[in-house]
What we know:
Elements (H helix, E strand, L loop, with lengths): L2 E7 L7 H4 L7 H15 L5 E6 L9 E4 L3 E6 L4 E9 L2 H10 L3 E4 L6 H12 L5 E6 L5 H18 L3 E6 L17 H14 L3 H5 L3 H7 L4 H10 L5 E9 L6 E8 L1
Parallel strand pairs: 1-8, 2-7, 2-8, 3-6
Antiparallel strand pairs: 1-10, 4-5, 9-10
Helix pairs in contact: 3-5, 5-9, 6-8
Amino acid sequence: MSIVFAAIMPHPPILVPPIGKERLKDAEKxxxxxxxxxxxxxxxDFDTIVVITPHxxxxxxxxxxxxxxxxxxxxxxxxxxxxxxxxxGDPQLGLAVVKDSPLATACPETILDHGVLVPLYYPTAAGIxxxxxxxxxxxxxxxxxxxxGRSLARTIDRLGRxxxxxxxxxxxxxxxxxxxxxxxxxxKEFDDKLVGLVGxxxxxxxxxxxxxxxxxxxxxxxxxxxILLGALDGKKVGPEVISYEGPFGVGYLVAALEVN
Length: 260
């Protein structure tokens, strides 16, 4: 078993306590869920964290795989320039992923975006320090991203890595009039449907998600989730939705996908 555990985690900087401050009480469910899932991570034996981000150096025709030896980043764009977070990379795995998949391209980026940094914040605070392989999404059909995920898993198996896989994903950005994408009544419809599909681990339903609904919801979740689903293909998975809420007009989902 090479992928030892998988998770879907949100990436709003407001969930980082020094940024969210008193507003974080309005996202208490997400904060507690991220602390809980980070405690589960601590009990696992793994070598590398692979984080799939819909931000960063995203691709239009391929999936960018970060092949650097060291990565760093901070929340300066959100008013918190210090501290800077530094992680050792896993270039051997990254280059192997690129070699094995025709959909992948090597990415020289070494600066981490908030799509990576926010999901890593709580595990890092819990004392977890492992090698890191960031992968940015490509804006490709979900079926293609699923195939990339399958290739990713084969490469992980071939190299004998034990991997914790995280899909960084925010759901609809249009839940309220105060949301960053404005309001759409279909935002909540999207979130309810996606959370239900994740909870029942309906892979086919997720891969064939209504593209018009996804577009109207203003989401950045399906691309990274499709890669995660491909990487878990053929494995026995126990899904658990730990929390869902949309306190600031954006849907936050924390889900554990236990690989048995």
